[in-house]
Design brief:
mainly alpha
């Protein structure tokens, strides 16, 4: 004890300006340093129950000694909560844990980070405090400046869903929570595009929302809201984006909201949505007219890929194969592993095959070789579409020239053949 007193006095004499860090008075400082030494030693040994009393004294006498008082205190209190069997004692430790986050904000700032962590602890130890946890998560998401915890948007959405289950929130609140969470993760993604954990967090949000955002759920909800928001661009953007993401683009309300948005605030995104709407109605040329000059203005690569795919398929359906092929090439420039582009490209080669040959039974069927080559490439780059590719391969192999045709016109299987038409490609001669 005398040695501890001596150390305390030495500290105070050597650095009087920082004395308040160790307590408001010399006596407090002695108690602070004494208990600091005791609790730290027990903490190193993971003897948390032994560390707890001395740690409490440090928090009392010198709460601004170090941020470690709060970081380690969090560990100590959670260990005490886990180990005690006494309900009242457990309740007291939980109360102290919540107060600890408030004290940390008081002495070391970081209110948004601490609000998120406190809300997270509240979900674990105070599951009935739904409303308070929801408010804290929202504070963390609104004020947080630096990327600290990608799980916060997920936990916030889960809390709102819990509130819905307890009749304390609506489905509209769930959608709003999802929108806030994805908006925050988009900001993080823009700051750190290489961080795969952000994508994982986004996928977690999507999975959590799934039961509450089917077309059956969303369409009537937006039908009710549209009449009062048909001139609200912000609402229309969020609503059409949600319906688009959930695959509800064939609903009448999606068409109405898309038209309203494009009339109020035409953008590349709204042009793309208009094109999707027209494509769904099989108005392929109108879809082309909406999006063909807007694709490059879309901000995200995945948006461009989907827009070029829509263009390519629309060109296929209007027999504009050269333009369709160019759209597929654009897709593959952005995303070389996009198997859908190869499928559509193969369909174009097959659809235009007869126009690429003379009267010869071989030359009129040569493009089918290229189509099959393209389907094979599709499943090589994207195994997820292998089943579709195999069906197309089987269908168009039946259109290959027969062995007799090859013999009649002087061709041999296995030799090279160049198709020179609206496209140029070298392939291998095969019989059906």
């Amino acid at each position: 004890m005398k040695r501890l007193v001596f150390i305390a006095v030495s500290v105070l004499m050597a650095a009087p300006l920082s004395a308040q860090k160790y307590g408001a008075t010399p006596e407090d400082s002695i108690e602070c340093i004494k208990n600091l030494s005791i609790y730290q030693e027990f903490y190193k040994q993971k003897a948390y129950a032994d560390a707890y009393p001395a740690w409490k004294e440090v928090l009392h006498y010198c709460p601004n000694t170090s941020k470690n008082t709060y970081i380690r205190g969090n560990v100590i209190l959670k260990q005490m909560i886990a180990k005690t069997q006494d309900a009242e004692a457990k309740k007291q430790y939980i109360t102290e844990l919540m107060q600890l986050w408030d004290l940390r904000i008081q002495y070391y700032g970081e209110p948004a980070y601490c609000a998120g962590q406190k809300a997270s602890d509240m979900r674990t130890y105070m599951p009935d405090a739904i409303d308070e946890a929801k408010t804290l998560f929202l504070t963390a998401m609104e004020d947080q400046k630096e990327v600290r915890n990608y799980a916060i948007p997920f936990l916030y959405l889960r809390t709102v869903i819990d509130a819905f289950k307890a009749s304390q929130a609506t489905k509209d609140d769930i959608l709003e929570a999802y929108e806030k969470g994805t908006a925050l993760l988009d900001v993080y993604q823009a700051a750190k595009p290489e961080d795969t954990k952000i994508g994982e967090a986004m996928a977690g949000l999507d999975a959590l929302l799934e039961p509450y955002a089917t077309c059956t759920e969303l369409v009537p909800l937006y039908e009710k809201k549209f009449a009062d928001n048909n001139a609200n661009a912000d609402f229309l953007k969020k609503a059409t984006a949600m319906l688009d993401k959930r695959g509800c683009t064939d609903s009448d309300i999606f068409f109405k909201m898309t038209e309203a948005l494009h009339a109020i605030e035409p953008t590349p995104q709204s042009a793309y949505l208009m094109a999707k709407m027209c494509y769904a109605k099989k108005d392929y040329q109108v879809a082309i007219d909406y999006i063909k000059d807007q694709v490059e203005a879309l901000e995200k690569d995945n948006e461009k890929v989907n827009a070029y795919m829509l263009l390519a398929d629309s060109y296929l359906n209007t027999n504009q194969y050269t333009l369709g092929r160019a759209a597929c090439m654009k897709v593959l420039e952005i995303k070389p592993e996009e198997g859908r582009a190869y499928l559509v490209l193969g369909n174009m080669y097959a659809a235009g095959a007869k126009a690429c040959g003379t009267e010869s039974q071989v030359s009129q069927r040569a493009a089918y070789w290229v189509a099959v080559d393209t389907y094979i490439k599709a499943k090589q780059v994207d195994p997820s579409i292998a089943e579709t590719a195999d069906k197309l391969i089987a269908a168009y192999r039946a259109h290959f020239p027969s062995g007799d045709d090859l013999f009649t016109f002087g061709y041999k299987e296995g030799e090279s053949y160049t198709v020179d038409c609206w496209f140029r490609a070298t392939t291998t001669i095969r019989a059906r």
